[in-house]
Automatic annotation (TrEMBL):
Protein name listed in UniProt: non-specific serine/threonine protein kinase
Keyword ATP-binding included in the entry's annotation: yes
Organism whose genome encodes this protein: Salarias fasciatus
Similarity annotation: Belongs to the protein kinase superfamily. CAMK Ser/Thr protein kinase family. DAP kinase subfamily.
Binding residues annotated for ATP, in chain numbering: K59
Encoding gene per record: stk17b
Length: 322
């Protein structure tokens, strides 16, 4: 469902990697099992390293796509993962192999699956869990932005969990569309999934770190309501919803969370990128640090939450190690 790039795809691509790409046969080193997910050009399979018994996720990336050599894109994805190596919220790259058709990235296994499943499920997460996951996502995004990297494909399918129930910690995956900012000139590209991308992408306007913050707003909306805020009946309608920032804040689901949740999302789903808060600024939003949440799990019995409580100096600022 990705759109074709209209811009120079080479803009912002990284070319240097440290991880060797081994040509040793994968099957002799790993036992491959079930499929964990797949996209247009990649299949991800669960596998076990024979020597250690450790579980990994093997991402098979096709070297040729639409008759074109895409090795540079794969190298770029590896380079971004390497740049983010010290970022605990980003999945770790363990090793890389090459087969006839693919380059295979051996990634840290995120056993909890996609947070998409938490949005699509009947039972929505308690607010305290949502804010914890959003905090972790913002921590990861903040560190990426500090390295001048933008992810550009943040969505509930690309935020995974270390364990499922209760939800573990988040791991950001899928750096295929990630770009480095500020290298040569400005970055304009049309990419991502319309439902989740910011208006500036659809309008072919310059991309900045603020583009990722839009997506964090979409993810927060989906975790709170279980609905995708801009999804229309077709692509045209979705585009229109995004470019007009047509968001429904009246959903019943919002009555089960504190009003600070709506305030947080409203600050991110803003058309002008320069008016969105940075990841670091978001991290000091009171919604993410409040300790008392709406306690009713039953929407029918939902009471209005306690609002604007003092959250103690300890929580007033983002953690110092950011
Ligand atoms: P694509 O570029 O095709 O979207 P992704 O990197 O997003 O590829 O992987 C596709 C899907 O595979 C993810 O949405 C997720 O469900 C699963 N997946 C990817 N990486 C891992 C991982 N490290 N651990 C567990 N599942 C993964
Ligand atoms: Mg993906």
């Amino acid at each position: 469902r990705r759109l074709d790039s209209r811009g120079g795809l080479s803009a912002g691509l990284l070319g240097e990697i440290q991880t060797p790409i081994s040509t040793e046969p994968l099957e002799s080193l790993y036992d491959m099992s079930g499929e964990l997910g797949r996209g247009k050009f990649a299949v991800v399979k669960r596998c076990v390293e024979k020597a250690t018994g450790k579980v990994f996720a093997a991402k098979f990336l096709r070297k040729r796509r639409r008759g074109r050599d895409c090795r540079a894109e794969v190298i770029h994805e590896m380079a971004v993962l390497e740049t983010a190596r010290n970022n605990a919220r980003v999945v770790n790259l363990h090793a890389a192999y090459e087969t006839d058709h693919d380059i295979v990235l051996l990634l840290e296994f995120a056993a909890g699956g996609e947070i998409f499943d938490l949005c699509a499920c009947d039972e929505l997460l308690p607010e305290a869990q949502i804010t914890r996951l959003i905090r972790q996502t913002l921590e990861g995004v903040h560190l990426l932005h500090q390295s001048n990297l933008v992810h550009l494909d943040l969505k509930p399918q690309n935020i995974l969990l270390t364990s499922p129930c209760p939800p573990g910690d988040i791991k950001i995956v899928d750096f295929g569309l990630a770009r480095r900012l500020g290298a040569v000139g400005e970055l304009r590209e049309i990419l991502g999934t319309p439902e989740y991308v910011a208006p500036e992408i659809l309008n072919y306007e310059p991309i900045t770190t603020a583009t990722d913050l839009w997506s964090v707003g979409v993810i927060a909306y989906m975790l709170v309501t279980g609905e995708s805020p801009f999804a229309g009946d077709d692509k045209q309608e979705t585009y229109l919803n995004v470019s007009q920032v047509n968001v429904d804040y009246s959903r019943e689901a919002f009555s089960r969370v504190s009003e600070l949740a709506v305030d947080f999302i409203r600050k991110l789903l803003v058309k002008a990128p320069e008016d969105r808060p940075s990841a670091a600024e978001c991290l000091s939003h009171p919604w993410l640090w409040q300790q008392q949440f709406c306690l009713s799990p039953e929407p029918a019995a939902a009471t209005r939450p306690v609002r604007e409580r003092s959250c103690g100096a300890k929580w007033a600022a983002p953690p110092e190690d950011l």
